[in-house]
């Protein structure tokens, strides 16, 4: 699917995390606007959309943390939009544990 000039994978065969949200007013534009020059820590990521929007907005780095392996396929969504490399990391963990 395409949203805000970005590409996202949507898995309609799962019963929980499809990779998309039914929220009609996406905060992506706002995230993109405020991300320039910032580092984003995206905890409890769910769909990884905030990470992709922040990277598109010029975030210096993004770290996405979620326990779900299917959520972390968001790495694929970032790659679809050209955001790869050490500046964009994905961590499988319980956010706030430690």
Supply database-style keywords:
98 residues; alpha/beta; Rossmann fold; three-stranded parallel beta sheet; two-stranded antiparallel sheet; 3 helices; 5 strands; 20% strand
Describe this entry's structure for a reader.
By secondary structure, the protein is of the alpha/beta class. It has a domain of 67 residues: Vaccinia Virus protein VP39 (Rossmann fold, 3-Layer(aba) Sandwich), CATH 3.40.50.150. The protein is 23% helix and 20% strand. It has three helices and five strands, in the order ββαβαβαβ. A three-stranded parallel beta sheet has the order 3-4-5, with helices on one face. The chain has a two-stranded antiparallel ribbon with strand order 1-2. Strand 1 and strand 2 form a beta hairpin. Helix 1 packs across helix 2. The model has no long low-confidence stretch (mean pLDDT 81).
Q: Output the radius of gyration.
A: 13 Å
Largest sheet: 3 strands, parallel
In what order do the strands lie side by side in the largest sheet? 3-4-5
Oligomer category: single chain
* Approximate strand percentage: 15-25%
Concise structural overview:
With 98 residues, the protein is of the alpha/beta class.
Detail the topology: elements first, then pairings.
Blueprint: E1 2-3, E2 6-7, H1 28-35, E3 39-43, H2 49-56, E4 61-66, H3 74-80, E5 88-92
